[in-house]
Design a protein that fits this description.
Strand content: under 5%
Order of helices and strands: HHHHHHH
Helix content: 55-70%
Shape: elongated
Number of domains: 2
Largest sheet: none
Distance between the termini: 79 Å
Number of strands: 0
Length: 115
């Protein structure tokens, strides 16, 4: 049953439901009408595509990815990005800690053993 029919008696609830369906992670498991609505909205809006983890220029919107984002939000799709950011931050921290050690232990930088 399409959303319009399901909520025909309550237009405010229909509007609320339409907005909430477009929030990644809110909908959970989608029925066919909810999936069709979300996909149609994604096709129309580049900014919505971006919020759902798609490139704004994406033409193909896979059903499995839409269902995953509707169910889990974006955390599952952002792991590779976050991993690369974390890796950069860790290497940056490593560089800073090495510089700090070099300042504290100048002999270490020159390769002089303290044993």
């Amino acid at each position: 049953m399409p959303l319009e029919e399901r909520y025909a008696n309550d237009p405010e609830l229909l509007e609320f439901y339409r907005k909430k369906l477009l929030v990644p992670g809110w909908a959970g498991e989608l029925n066919p009408d909810e999936f069709a609505y979300i996909k149609s909205q994604l096709k129309q809006s580049p900014s919505l595509k971006r919020r759902w983890g798609f490139r704004p220029s994406a033409k193909r919107l896979s059903e499995s990815r839409i269902r995953t984002v509707a169910r889990n939000g974006l955390s599952a799709n952002k792991k590779p990005v976050l991993a690369s950011v974390v890796k950069e931050q860790e290497s940056s921290k490593w560089d800073k800690s090495q510089k700090h050690l070099d300042l504290l232990l100048p002999d270490r930088k020159a390769g002089v053993s303290t044993r």
